[in-house]
Structure formats: C-alpha cells, structure tokens
Here is the input.
Amino acid sequence: MNQQKPVIEQVPFGEHFDYPADQPLTPYERERRNLLTRYGRFAQERGRVIESYLIRPAGATDQLVVELFDATNAQLVVTCATLQRDNGGAGVWYAIGTLADLARVLPSPTRNILVLPAAPDSDLDGLCAVRSIIPVWPADDSDTFTSHQVQARSSEPLFYPNGEPSL
Here is the structure.
C-alpha cells in the first residue's frame, strides 16, 4: 500500500472557503461566514495565530479547505449557522463530518471546535461531547464567544473526553 502524505498549503485566512466560488451565497453560507469572521477576530484579539490551509489528501483528486485553524491552541474550527441536525445538507451533521474529515489529515493532534449561532440544547451538546467536539457560540452581539467551559468556571466543571480545552 502506498503511504503518501497529503499536500498541505497554507493560505491567508478568509480568502478560501469550503463553498463553491461559482455559486451565489445562500443566506446560510453568508451567516456561516459571518460566524467564521467573528470567531477569527475573537481569536486574533487574544493573540492567537490563525491559519488556513488547502489540503489535497494522498491519492485524492478533491481539495479540502481548513478555513480556520488556531495554531496557538491546536484547534480546528468549523462554523455552522444553524442548530438543526440537517438543514438541506448544511446542518450540524455536515459540520461534524467536516471536522472528522479535516482532523484526520492535519499533521498534529487537534481539538475540534464547532462554532454555532447560539447555545446548543442538551441533546446537541451531548452529540458534540461523544464526538469530542467543543461547541462555542457568540456571548452577545460583540465578537465575544463562550462555551460551557467558560460558563462553568464559577460552578461545577463539565466532563470533556479529551481533557479540558482552552477557549
């Protein structure tokens, strides 16, 4: 079996998106990109190194897009502009699949971050927990994000299968 490595090219943040460039933006994609931009700004304002990558897995013809990787905390970040599982193929299931697909080709272990438009309900939170995904969402209309980890710092700690993440 041929053990080729993927070809990974670093590109500027915000210039490449995991959405066909020849199609008009849907309202969903517009909101998803807004979340991505806001979270990127949130991370950069905290001194984190933000990167983006184009990846061609070994033996594949398709190219994968890592829109946001927090190199400071080794966090792979994917955004989802809905709390619905399936939203015409662009829901939480799609985002979870994207995280799984991208994480397997990155060269180092990562924490998976799913940026949502609002706090997840307990069922969605449970789905994220069993997949070792940390959901985060805007705390307000500013560029501040929160998670259960942030909210639990003053109360009982949550269980994270891969250890407590840094947000």
